[in-house]
């Protein structure tokens, strides 16, 4: 039921790009992305709906591949402030529940 | 504009007791969602309320319940506490139903959480 996120952890230098993937074994209706810094509450980034367009938020964007039941979060020209744990939440077609991945820990170093 | 507030911020209870947590959404927001976060289980969805009605519910036992008042404030109650209920409980608010259908999408704002320790 829980989506699978990859990689589990990644270390970047400032200015580098990263991709975080979120895969589901079931047909997805929506994918939600959040970032959480240590000791803080999550921050909502974006929702992607089935059939929707790729979304963007500053230099962070995401796509939703319905055929693969997968979403990818793209972080370009990473900044120190991007460090944190990124979670995806998935909602299946026909369900009213939201399941979260175990998170991807992203560390950006100078 | 004030953010989402949660009270209390920290709480210690013993097994078997019950607890009530409160969440005040951002002014004008009518949807409140609750989440549980633990090191072992990660982030889990509890339920969502919109206009005093529960719209969605996660896979939690009936010991976990909630309600929403006419002013959109929400409470979550856990009865007969178990050690495994120790967690950070987060609430988040949005203007409209958070996981609505179609192309209408909402931004969700989280509160700081209530850290519950069950002894």
Helix-strand topology string of chain B: EEEEEEEEEEE
Oligomer state of the chains in this structure: heterodimer
- Distance N to C terminus of chain B: 37 Å
Q: Which pair of protein chains has the largest interface, and what are the residue counts? A: A-B, 21 and 23 residues
Please specify the SSE layout and strand pairing.
The complex is a heterodimer of chains A (110) and B (119).
Chain A: E1 4-6, E2 9-13, E3 18-23, E4 28-36, E5 43-49, E6 55-57, E7 60-65, E8 70-75, E9 84-92, E10 99-100, E11 104-109
Chain B: E1 5-7, E2 10-13, E3 19-24, E4 31-38, E5 42-50, E6 53-57, E7 64-68, E8 74-78, E9 87-94, E10 109-110, E11 114-118
Parallel strand pairs in B: 2-11
Antiparallel strand pairs in B: 1-3, 3-8, 4-5, 4-9, 5-6, 7-8, 9-10, 9-11
Task: Please provide a written account of the structure.
The complex is a heterodimer of chains A (110) and B (119). Helices cover 0% and strands 56% of the residues of chain A. Chain A is built from no helices and eleven strands. The mean pLDDT of chain A is 90. In chain B, a hairpin with a 2-residue loop joins strand 5 and strand 6. The termini of chain B are far apart. Classes of the chains: A mainly beta (110), B mainly beta (119). At the A-B interface, strand 5, strand 9 and strand 10 of A face strand 5, strand 6 and strand 10 of B.
List keywords for this structure.
heterodimer; A: 110 residues; 5-stranded antiparallel sheet; B: 119 residues; 7-stranded mixed sheet; 4-stranded antiparallel sheet; 0% helix
